[in-house]
């Protein structure tokens, strides 16, 4: 087994079954990426850190959470990784929401192949009536727009955990023009340039 996989196992406590599912996911992603622009091709060799660990680290920030919504789920990060790691836990479910049909068809193929506790929804994130504990997203939009997509989930009791890049602090400052919220920033454990934004108590500026 590769060093990258063993490192991921140590970082996450992933089981053999988790690793097997993630390995299948990687193979299916690699094949699909040849005909669809799901992720940058140069990022696939670094799958275990760049994509899998980047996604999985969210579980340590909300270890009791069982229900998640991934907005703009795209290639399945972080949502598919979360569903794989939550598989078998009572009450666990991940909603994978994306507005593009072909991405949803890819996600549905993964969910079916791996028998994941997940539901794929083809539609606009802000129009769904899903009730979850955590709403998340990666590489979807700047914070002021992303908070708009996520607002309905906050209204139903969710908190937010969003994977962002180096501009996270500037994006949060800009977002305060439209939104009142409490937030915390933490450094990504998969890439020190990345940030994880934790958001609570969201409401629009009047």
From TrEMBL:
Q: Where in the cell is it found?
A: Cytoplasm
Tell me the superkingdom of the source.
Answer: Bacteria
Query: Which amino acid positions bind S-adenosyl-L-methionine, per UniProt?
Result: 72, 77, 125-126, 138
Q: Where is the signal peptide?
A: none
For this UniProt entry, the molecular function terms from Gene Ontology, in alphabetical order, are: methyltransferase activity
Q: What is its EC number?
A: 2.1.1.170
Entry keyword Cell inner membrane: no
User: Carries keyword Ligase?
Assistant: no
**Broadest EC class assigned to this enzyme:** transferase
Q: Which reaction does it catalyse?
A: guanosine(527) in 16S rRNA + S-adenosyl-L-methionine = N(7)-methylguanosine(527) in 16S rRNA + S-adenosyl-L-homocysteine
Keywords for this entry?
Cytoplasm, Methyltransferase, rRNA processing, S-adenosyl-L-methionine, Transferase
> Which NCBIfam families does the UniProt record give?
rsmG_gidB
Which HAMAP family does the record cross-reference, listed alphabetically?
Answer: 16SrRNA_methyltr_G
Role summary: Specifically methylates the N7 position of guanine in position 527 of 16S rRNA.
Query: What's this protein's family per the entry?
Result: Belongs to the methyltransferase superfamily. RNA methyltransferase RsmG family.
What is the protein's given name?
Answer: Ribosomal RNA small subunit methyltransferase G
